[in-house]
Structure formats: C-alpha cells, structure tokens
Amino acid sequence: MKRWRKRMITASTVMMLAISWTGSHAEASESVIFDSTTIQANGKKFTVQMTTIDLSDPYLRVMPITAESGIGYVESFAGMIERSGAVAGINGTFFDAYEEDESKRHPNGLMIESGSFVRSGENVALGIRTDKTAQIHPLQTKLSFKVKHNNKVYTVNPWGVNTYYGDDADQVVAYTNDFAQQIDRAGGMKVVVEAGRITSMTEEAAAPPENGYVLYIGHSSNNDNHLLPNIHVGDQVEVEALVADSNSKSTESVAEAWESAIGVGPKLVTNGQVDVDFERDGFDDPKITGAANTRSFVGVNGDGRLVMGTLSSATAVDMAQALVELGLVEAMNMDGGSSSALYADGSMKRAPGRLLSNALIVKRYEDPQVQVMVNEHFINENRGFVKQDVTMVPFRSIFERIGADFNWDGEERVLTAKRGTAELTLRPDVSEAIVNGRMIKLEQAPAIVDGHLYIPLRFVGETLGAKVSWDQELYRATLELK
C-alpha cells in the first residue's frame, strides 16, 4: 500500500528532503498490468487485450512517439518500442498510410509531449494532465508568437505546428526538432526563435533549437508585404502555447497544465455510458462508422487508471459497449485495422500489419521522476529525479525562471551563476561547489543527463534561501524564491 503525504520545509530544513516512492518495487511492477479476457456486448463475444497503467507511479511517464526519421515518416512498431525502451505501447492516431511518398505519411491528430506541441490539431484527445489525471475531451492547440520591435508588437499566428500544407505559398508553419533536425523547405523564409528572441532569418536550411522553433514563412505576396517586414533578427518574442478544452470551456498553458496528449477519436464512452456520435466528432468514413474490424482504444477506469488495448473484430459501437462492460468510465477509439498494435508484459500482444507514423507508449525510468515548480510555474521540459535518496533538479530550467545570470564553459566544464548576492561555481561529477568564495560539500555531485545539468535540490534551497514544499502524491517539489 502506498502512503501519500504532504509536508512543508524551509531552506534550513531542506536537508530532510531525501525522498523515495513509498511503494515497494513489487508494487512498482504492478503499475503496468496486462490482461486478456473475453467480454460479451450487444449479443456478441469479443476478445480484449489490455494494459492498465497507474499514472501515479513516479517511475512511469506516458507519451506519444513518432517515427525515428521525423514526422511524416514511418517505422515499425517494434522499432519504436525498442528505441524508446517502452514497457507498454499502443498504436497512435490516424496517418496518411497510403501516401506513396514515404516522407509525407503525416499524422492527423494533435500530439503533446512534456508540455510541448509535437503536432497541432483539434480532436477528441486523451490528455494526461500535470496532476497525473487522465481525461478524454475535445482539445484544440493554439500557438502564437508576439514579436516586439521598437515598442510595437506584431502577432504571428502559424497555421499549425509540425503540419503539412502542401505547396501553398501563403502558409506559415512552426517547426520543432520533433519534425526534423533541419528545416530545408524551399520557397520560404526560415525564422529561428530561441530563448525569447529571433536569432536568425535565412533562406537556407535551419535547425530547430531544442526548446525553440523554426517559423517557415512562405513567399506569398501577402507574407512578403505584410508579415516579413514586421519581424527582425534580435526582436524579442513571447511564445504563447495554449490548449482549449471544449468540455470544461477552459484555455490553459500547455506547459503548465498538460504532460502529454494524443488526438484521435471518435469518443466511445463518457461517464460510464456509451457515447458515440460520429458527426459531432467529425467522422464519416464507413471503415470507422460502420465496418467491423480490429480495433484499438484508450480509456480510463473507475480507479482513474489509464487503460490501453485492442479488441477483436468489432464496430465502434460494439467496442464502446464492450468497454462499458469492462468498467471504463471514459474511452476513445484509436487508429485500427492494419494499424492496431499492442505491446505489454515484455512481448508483442498484437503486431500491426503496416509500418506506423506514431504510437502512444509507457516508459519506465531507472529513477523516480520528480515534477518541479518554481514560483508557481511548472517546469515541463525537464523532470528532476531521485538518485541514491538525493533529489536532483534541472539547473538551467530553474535558474532561467528566477532570472539568474549564468554561463557554461564547455571546454573547462564549469558553470558559473549569480543571483542577487549569491555567486556560485559548479562542475559536473565534482561533489563540491563554491558559493561566494566558500567551498560547499554537496550530498551528490552535479550530473549531466541528456545534455542537461542536474544539481541537488538541497543545494538550491540552502544557497538561494528557497522555501520548498513536497507533494508526495504528485512527486512534486515546489520552490518559492523572492
């Protein structure tokens, strides 16, 4: 039995924050459970294979994944599972499976990963919120760039994120490195946005920054005469990325509210009742609305756990009734037929009949993952983690949000930073830091993981005088700094 508790600590007692998931390793292994069963619905019998996932397990994260070569390409489902190290996975949203050009087999639904848009869209979608709850609602992504030049603000509203609009010269598309490592489309200006500024504008290929964008602006007369004259290298840029929820009538920051999402549909179950409305959800293809075929689904059960699985040959309405019989309170259709795929319990439970554009996976990490908030802002791009009972947090993500000055010397492998009266020096793999000229022993050496420097949370609290609170249920550390 996991024991959940909350406690508040201050900088003077932050040394107590040596935390661990109070569930045992045996319990952790039970956070992803596979089952196969036969269910009767609408007078028919169906075989259901499904995996149930405990979203509260800090070792687990759920996320969409796209083909290794980038959005628009395809890859074997087995390759996606192996490459990502997933412990469970299911095929994802619809894509242009019959497109002859293998670089243009684009997905059709929205995707969000780590609070960032992988692909824009407006769909019925499974969303995992930052409070670790799952819901299935109609969601719409919204992205805008507010460009400031000479005290004037010009707003750029891209048509989409990592989407494909053919050769339309008037298009404006925001690309991230999820799409490709280089954006080399001809016929348009590539505007690189990074760290709140336009860093370059070029007709040549441009690489999307890790946490930034390349805006592709087609050379139509409209864009050349009215858009491009309003943006310049060096301009400040405020990026606004939002998700609108039609059910709750709310619009929230994607980074603050959403961990991940994938848009597919149609909706199957709402509040434990069959809820299939093809017209409402925008579907008229007979393969979806009436034909019986192998089906894939995601849903939420009465305990709030995520369920993903496949069903033997069934119509969408039959599947919805079967999922109600299984006790799901929310459910949504995924791509099906030859795309249906399920991996769980260390083996392929259903192999797809084609290469896939995308999938939804469950990844288990070696160390429990820690959510971090700083001054009421959620750090979604990087998680902290617990290593040998020490909570490690992402340095850059924290210090950027508190307005600290810092510099990384790659050759010397040394980081210097200053905030207020505190000046500090850190080195990866060295368990000592220098603070205002004084040597400080660290409980664990800073570490570089996936190109990011992580430092002990205790050090942040003691050095900066932070007030730190811990939410055991969410596995979240919250720092408040003046």
UniProtKB/TrEMBL annotation:
Residues 382-473 form the Copper amine oxidase-like N-terminal domain. Residues 1-26 form the signal peptide. Residues 189-362 form the Phosphodiester glycosidase domain. Keywords: Signal. The keyword Signal applies. This is Copper amine oxidase. It comes from Paenibacillus foliorum.
